[in-house]
Amino acid sequence: MSNPNLVQIIIKDESGRDAVMVRVDKTAKEMMEEKPSSRWDARYWHPKYEILNDFLETKHTVQTLSTFILGIQQGDVPRASKGDKYVDNGIIFINVAEICDSGIIWINCKRITEKHYLRIKRAEPTIGDLIFVRSGKGSIGKSTLFMGIPREQKIGIFGHLNIVKLKEINSYYVECFLKTSFGQQQIERFEAGTSQQTDFRQESFAAIKIPILKLEIQKNIESEYKKMSAFHNKAMDAKKRGDEAGSKKSLETAEKMLHNLVARTEAVIRGERDDVI
After folding, report:
1. 3-state class of 122 per DSSP?
2. Which of 25, 111, 144, 183 has CA 20 to 30 A from 164's CA?
């Protein structure tokens, strides 16, 4: 007799071979009713994700990011039909390739015309906005904060990027949380549940669960993040001067500082320390 509560999950064993894990606690009805949308990919139902959710909800008050999203805007790709083209002395245009963990490699950005910028201005970021890579093979889930670009008053955003504006939560904390194992596993789970789609949906981003840390801790995360960002900017300035060695050194310093801050943030979430400082 078949079991109506049986869900099979294909996983890899220790030798990398396919193995089957069977769950009997999920029905087809539950899979169809899963929010933000029905999930049929077996990887989405791996128990490790629910263990993570249970841990967060046991230790903290937890909210979904939807509670704090003021708005999400998507950039746009250059369109020949609209006369879009790259120019030497235009408006800076941020693409996926220029997004790294510690910030934007703005020195490598191409430039677009004023006409193109006006068409996509709705997605222009302001300082503290989250930039999230929503599509692109191997890049989905990357994120950084927009910290401004020296001497640039107008900013264009590529179509594979989302600009997320937040309210009532510190965006610096959100960015660090997304880089913790708690954030990354949720991104991984929602990506696994998209049935081979190459677009991380806005509804999936909004469904990410985040523990609510004390405002003082969130503010300290912001302070530490800004210290890291100063080294990222120093790396960009050095690169612009042609000082590749100096740029590499400063960028490595920024990346180490960010890695350490994320680790401390995760330790606070796990209850292993009281604050990030």
Report:
1. helix
2. 111
Q: Say if residue 144 is exposed, middle or buried (CB neighbours under 10 Å; 0-12, 13-18, 19+).
A: buried
Predicted confidence at residue 218, as pLDDT, reads 98
Residue with tokens 């039909």: 81
Q: Which residues contact 52 (CB under 8 A, 6 or more apart)?
A: 181, 182, 185, 186
d(CA 251, CA 107): 13
Model confidence, pTM? 0.82
E runs forming strands in 154-220: 155-157, 161-166, 209-211
In angstroms, the CA 175 to CA 261 distance is 11
CA 186 to chain centre: 11
25-54 core/surface letters (b: 16 or more CB in 10 A; e: else)? ebeeeebeebebeebebbebbbeebeebee
Alpha carbon distance 185, 175 (integer Å): 14
> Measuring CA to CA, how many Å separate 200 from each of 134, 142, 194?
5, 11, 8
- Per-residue pLDDT for 109 more than 70? yes
Decide if 258 contacts 101 (C-beta within 8 A): yes
Instruction: Give the β-pairing of 155-157 and 86-94.
Output: parallel
Confidence of residue 180 (pLDDT cuts 50, 70, 90): very high
Task: Name the strand (E) or helix (H) holding 258.
Answer: helix 244-270
**For the chain, counts of helices (H) and of strands (E):** 8, 13
Report the range of poorest mean pLDDT among 67-81, 196-210, 243-257.
196-210
Give the burial string for 233-267 (b: 16+ CB within 10 Å, else e).
bbbbebbeeeeeeebeebbebbbebbeebbebbbe
Distance between CA atoms of 124 and 226, rounded to whole angstroms? Answer: 21
